[in-house]
Amino acid sequence: MSIESVKSHFKKWDREGDVMEFETSSATVIEAAETIGVIPARIAKTLSFKGEGEKAILVVAAGDAKVDNKKFRQTFGFKARMLSPEEVLAQTSHAIGGVCPFGLANDLAVFLDVSLKRFESLFPACGSANSAIELKLAELFEYSGAEDWVDVCKGWEEKGNEEAAVGIGNAIDGI
């Protein structure tokens, strides 16, 4: 059902046919990268946090990025608290492993982390533990209804990591 809400979401742009469904799991960053054949950093993972009030907020980040609690608090004004699997399902309509900023059950605030900007295209999930779509950065911003770019992650910007990731990504794409 969740993947169907995502496909329906993509109909606005005539992209529902671009949603890929796999025989193998793409529920984790590593599984998705192996299934798709790209480096883990190019998997756009959607993280769900308790927002202010009843609504969650979503942060889409590169697969190799980790939330920096200090940056998160400085950006949003409250502590980063992840939702439970039950809360994620209730807020997004997607189960863990397929969470994405598309076809949501509620109108949630979506933010894209700057860790994504290293790549021309990325692969977010599409509502199930065995799906993805390739999107360019501008498409990800538009289709997700993102409010803004934020800098709330760490671990991806270490010296040499960015260049290595781009180089490997380009090599994989060329195969």
Can you describe what's shown?
Helix content is 31%, strand content 21%. The strands form three sheets. A six-stranded mixed sheet has the order 8-6-2-3-5-9, with helices on both faces. Strands 1-7 form a two-stranded antiparallel ribbon. Strands 4-10 form a two-stranded antiparallel sheet. The longest helix has 13 residues, at 161-173. The termini are far apart. A hairpin with a 5-residue loop joins strand 2 and strand 3 (56-62). The model is unreliable at 159-175 (pLDDT under 50). It is globular, with a radius of gyration of 15 Å. The chain is built from six helices and ten strands. By secondary structure, the protein is α/β, with parallel strands linked by helices.
How many helices? The count is: 6
Helix content: 25-40%
Overall average residue pLDDT: 89
- Helices and strands, in order, run as HEHEEEHHEEEEHEEH
| Low-pLDDT segments, ≥5 res | 159-175
Largest sheet composition: 6 strands, mixed
Strand order of the largest sheet: 8-6-2-3-5-9
Estimated structural class: alpha/beta
